[in-house]
Write a structure and sequence with these properties.
Belongs to the NADH dehydrogenase family. It holds the Pfam family Pyr_redox_2. GO terms for molecular function: oxidoreductase activity. Its EC number is 1.6.5.-. It contains nine helices and 25 strands. The protein is α/β, with parallel strands linked by helices. The chain has two domains: 191 residues, FAD/NAD(P)-binding domain (3-Layer(bba) Sandwich), CATH 3.50.50.100; 136 residues, FAD/NAD(P)-binding domain (3-Layer(bba) Sandwich). A hairpin with a 2-residue loop joins strand 15 and strand 16. Helix 1 packs parallel to helix 8. The structure holds flavin-adenine dinucleotide and nicotinamide-adenine-dinucleotide (NAD).
């Protein structure tokens, strides 16, 4: 009989971990493994707020996939997935078709706009190398334009949503703006940076004391926090918030949440906000040959609440998924997935962060060192010492 064909869609946190573990686990010629990704690089999503604000280079946030996998063992296909057909066991790419016996969907999520008028059309989002390059250049361009037309709205910047992505990005941008002012000879007094959050608090659900600390850090950096005020509409020049107040701004970055990849819903799986409630082995309901991991999957905690989609979750799922695929093709019974929440570490710009690790709270400089350690650990995990040296940020 022919050897089983395994196709992995997406080389993000989940997909890379699955591919790397499979190449370790499988014996020679035990299966055919293909990894499909839109770009020939993996991006380190958890770093994207830095190149977006311009406080770090884009090259620090991406790695050629060929450096992460063994191309003798895994076929890398650089292409965009257009359609997943679970009943035909086929995936349609922009430039071809793949058939599979076992499929892993790790295509990540996409921005959730909740149908807010104008958001999709006018706001920028932090999702990929290309989207953050656009943010960075857009911001620099506003400074260049301002020196020519003095339009006040060019110096107003709105970040919509104060979840972890919003807070991490707004902190970086607050660090960058004074430097841009110097570079472009702009009076810092004309620059305004807003972070607008609908919930009664920033970082809803996170430790109160640490949220307060984070708010203090942001205020000291000059961020205008608008908490408990929803964005109602996004315009070409700004946002309408709360009871109709218009913040005029040429830059709106939306960090109001994410949902599953639209391809997953398009494939006919039952979804909640684009995410599939997978079974205890990470499989799509009704399909014992399709695994869904990362931001397009939905996992419930023991308390019956959905876990937030994180890199930590996607990586652990990738490890379990690879294990289960090898068990599946060997005809053995699968291992249940259990999420092990190690903690949360969020940066607040240079030298500042907040963290809860193993129930212990950290803030300030120590937490910032912890953040660096977490980032370096990831580089080490996927690429060993060489990757740590190439992409690590030690200072
Ligand atoms: P991703 O890592 O998003 O990867 C998806 C891959 O699929 C990408 O390579 C993409 O190019 C590819 N792809 C997408 N569509 C297609 C297509 N149609 N065809 C082909 N390829 C496609 N989580 C944490 O745990 N800790 C953090 O500190 C943290 N920081 C974050 C900071 C920021 C600024 C952001 C935005 C997120 C952060 N997260 C963090 C969340 C974390 O990044 C995500 O949960 C994680 O990336 C999800 O992994 P994934 O494998 O599902 O998808
Ligand atoms: P999120 O859903 O966690 O936060 C979005 C925020 O936007 C929420 O606070 C929400 O109340 C707010 N919001 C929604 N609609 C709004 C509106 N109309 N007006 C104003 N505010 C509005 O999304 P995220 O921050 O992008 O994070 C996505 C996932 O990635 C989460 O699971 C998060 O934990 C994870 N993440 C983790 C880290 C970290 O651990 N350091 C960093 C970034 C992201």
């Amino acid at each position: 009989s022919s050897i089983p064909k395994i196709v992995i869609l997406g080389a993000g946190y989940g997909g890379i971990l699955t591919a790397q573990r499979l190449q370790k686990e499988l014996n020679y010629n035990e299966a055919d493994v293909t990894l499909v990704n839109r770009h020939d690089y993996h991006y380190i999503t958890t770093h994207l707020h830095m190149p977006a604000a311009g406080t770090d280079s884009i090259e620090h946030a991406r790695v050629p996939i060929s450096k992460l996998i063994d191309e003798f063992k895994i076929d890398l296909v650089k292409s965009a997935v257009k359609d997943i057909r679970p009943h035909e066991k086929k995936v349609i790419l922009e430039d071809g078709t793949l058939s599979y016996d076992v499929l892993v969907i790790g295509l990540g999520g996409e921005p959730e706009t909740f149908g807010i008028p104008g958001m999709r059309e006018h706001a920028l989002t932090i999702r990929s190398i290309n989207s953050v390059r656009l943010i960075r250049e857009h911001i620099e361009y506003q400074f260049a334009c301002y020196k020519n037309d003095s339009k006040a709205s060019r110096m107003n910047f709105v970040v919509g949503g104060a979840g972890f992505s919003g807070v991490e990005f707004v902190s970086e941008l607050a660090d960058r703006l004074p430097r841009l002012c110097k570079e472009f000879d702009v009076d810092p007094g004309v620059v305004h940076l807003y972070n607008v959050e609908a919930a009664p608090t920033a970082l809803p659900g996170f430790d109160k004391e640490l949220v307060e600390y984070a708010m203090k850090v942001l205020k000291n950096k000059g961020v205008s926090l608008r908490i408990g005020v929803p964005i109602k509409e996004c315009l070409p020049e700004g946002v309408i918030i709360g009871d109709g107040e218009h913040i005029e701004a040429s830059t709106v970055v939306w960090t109001g949440g994410i949902r599953g990849n639209r391809l997953v819903e398009q494939a006919g799986f039952e979804v909640t906000r684009g995410r599939v409630a997978v079974d205890e082995y990470l499989r799509a309901p009704g399909f014992d040959n399709i695994f869904i991991i990362g931001d397009s999957s939905l996992i419930m905690s023991a308390e019956g609440r959905p876990y937030p989609p994180t890199a930590q979750m996607a990586m652990q799922q990738g490890v379990n998924c690879a294990k289960n695929i090898s068990l599946l093709i060997r005809g053995k019974s699968l291992e249940k997935f259990r999420f092990n929440h190690k903690g949360t570490v969020a940066s607040l710009g240079k030298g500042e962060a907040i963290a809860v690790v193993n129930g212990k709270k950290w803030k300030g400089w120590k937490a910032a060192q912890l953040k660096k350690a977490v980032d370096i650990r990831y580089l080490y995990k996927i690429g060993g010492i060489p990757l740590v040296i190439q992409k690590g940020r030690f200072f």
